[in-house]
C-alpha cells in the first residue's frame, strides 16, 4: 500500500500527494483521479473550505497480476 493525502478546496478535489519524506511528498493527483471511489466533488452542502483526507491506496494481487499481463502484452515493462 501507499499512504496518500487527498486535499479538497471548497468541496472540489485540489490535489493528492504521497507522504514522501514527511516534509515533501510526490504529487499523484493524476493517478488518484483514476480511482472511481475518490470523488472529484464532495457531496455535502455547504462543503468545508479546506479538507484533507488521509488513507492507504492498495492493489490486490490479482489486479497487480492483470496489470503486469497487460504491460507485457503491450511490450511495456513488467512491474514485478
Protein architecture, described:
By secondary structure, the protein is an alpha+beta fold. It is 21% helix and 29% strand. It has helices spanning 29-32, 61-73; strands at 2-9, 12-18, 50-57. The protein has a 3-stranded antiparallel sheet with strand order 2-1-3. A hairpin with a 2-residue loop joins β1 (2-9) and β2. It is elongated and about 45 Å long. The relative contact order is 0.23. The mean pLDDT is 89.
Give a short overview:
The protein has 80 residues and is of the alpha+beta class. 21% of the residues lie in helices and 29% in strands.
Largest sheet: 3 strands, antiparallel
Low-confidence runs: none
Derived structural class? alpha+beta
**Helical residue percent?**
10-25%
Shape: elongated
Order of strands, main sheet, comes to 2-1-3
In angstroms, what separates the terminal alpha carbons? 15 Å
Strand content: 25-35%
> How many extended strands?
3
| Helix count, DSSP H or I runs of 4 or more residues | 2
Please render the helix and strand layout as text.
Blueprint: E1 2-9, E2 12-18, H1 29-32, E3 50-57, H2 61-73
Comma- or semicolon-separated keywords:
single chain, 80 residues, alpha+beta, three-stranded antiparallel sheet, 3 strands, 21% helix
